[in-house]
Design a protein that fits this description.
Layout (H helix, E strand, L loop, with lengths): L11 H20 L1 H4 L1 H18 L6 H8 L8 H15 L9 H11 L16 E3 L5 E4 L6 H14 L4 H15 L6 H16 L8 H7 L1 H14 L3 H27 L2 H15 L5 H8 L3 H13 L3 E6 L2 E6 L2
Antiparallel strand pairs: 1-2, 3-4
Length: about 325
């Protein structure tokens, strides 16, 4: 098969980003936090799944996603719960996926969309318009007859091109969205595969929640895709994605450096504060879950923080919770 290079330009900005990312990867690897800390790994994996699904309008909160993954009952639309379970299953299988295999790409789509999409685990058979969250058509996906050929060519290029994996993975992500090979789940699979390709360069990417940065900067993500569609090449998307990767690495370095120097007490407050920046309040059971402690210990932790004046007790229905002190 001939190896058609997708259109993009390697700019100085892109080269600078690659240099910075390489330095940050070195720092993250040096702190060992991500590669050795199972709790951090799991919380990052949960953030990844929550973010990737939230981009696609899944309604579950981070707490609910955590509960579903931990096998708890959650009151939410069954479709949204199924999306979480499927996504967790495929992310957990990531180290068995072959990054250059179209067959594995289809199988991953089969797991990701199991019992949610009619054409699950296969290329779509009908035409598709790609819309943003306001219902505006961004572009029309490739005609279904051409989809398999284009996906095979793209995979072939990623496998054989000697361009840096940081660039190739971004190009793959963009081109896959452009082809839009599936009836549904293109964004989720694109982001999963981007991460999978990055792990070929440095394994720590398996545990880096890049999706959560994309989620925080969702409008920029779509703007970068639109700009690349308009330019007819993926340069703008590469620039955006490298920036998001950089941000995720900076956060990982800061978290690890912080947590390695903290006492247990400081670390607990740091985690509770992070939780309260994303949620209105925290309960005894959240704290029990977070630190794997007994109810009595959770109460002591919360009581001490209340005495210190950093959180305050609030009534939630029939029980109590704690919010950041105003």
């Amino acid at each position: 098969m001939h190896n058609k290079k997708p259109p993009f330009e390697i700019t100085n900005e892109i080269l600078d980003s690659i240099t910075e990312i390489a330095v940050l990867v070195g720092q993250v690897s040096a702190t060992q936090g991500l590669s050795t800390n199972p709790t951090l790994r799991k919380s990052n994996r949960i953030r990844t799944i929550y973010s990737s699904l939230a981009i696609e309008q899944n309604t579950l909160s981070l707490e609910q996603v955590t509960a579903v993954i931990n096998g708890k009952q959650v009151l939410a639309p069954p479709k949204d719960i199924a999306e979480v379970k499927n996504a967790y299953e495929i992310y957990e299988m990531m180290d068995t996926l072959r990054p250059y295999s179209v067959e594995d790409l289809l199988n991953a789509h089969g797991v990701m969309t199991k019992e949610l999409v009619e054409e699950s685990g296969c290329f779509r058979s009908g035409p598709v318009g790609v819309v943003d969250k306001n219902g505006k058509v961004l572009h029309f996906g490739t005609l279904p007859d051409y989809v398999p050929k284009l996906v095979y060519e793209l995979m072939d290029w990623v496998k054989n091109s000697d361009i840096h994996m940081l660039i190739k993975s971004c190009v793959f992500h963009y081109e896959l969205e452009l082809i839009h090979p599936f009836a549904d789940g293109n964004g989720r699979i694109g982001r999963l595969w981007h991460t999978l390709l990055l792990t070929q360069w440095k394994p720590i990417f398996a545990w880096l929640p890049i999706e959560s940065i994309i989620h925080d900067r969702q409008n920029e993500y779509y703007n970068a895709i639109n700009q690349s569609n308009y330019d007819g090449e993926s340069t703008a998307f590469i620039v955006f994605m490298l920036d998001a990767i950089k941000e995720a690495l900076v956060e990982a370095v800061e978290t690890t450096v912080l947590t390695e120097k903290m006492t247990d007490t400081e670390l607990r407050w740091y985690k509770i504060k992070q939780f309260l920046q994303k949620n209105e309040f925290i309960t005894n059971s959240d704290v029990r879950e977070m630190f794997k402690v007994s109810s009595a210990t959770a109460n002591r932790i919360l009581f001490r923080l209340t005495v210190e004046g950093v959180i305050q007790k609030v009534r939630i229905g029939k029980s109590w919770g704690y919010e950041l002190a105003r």
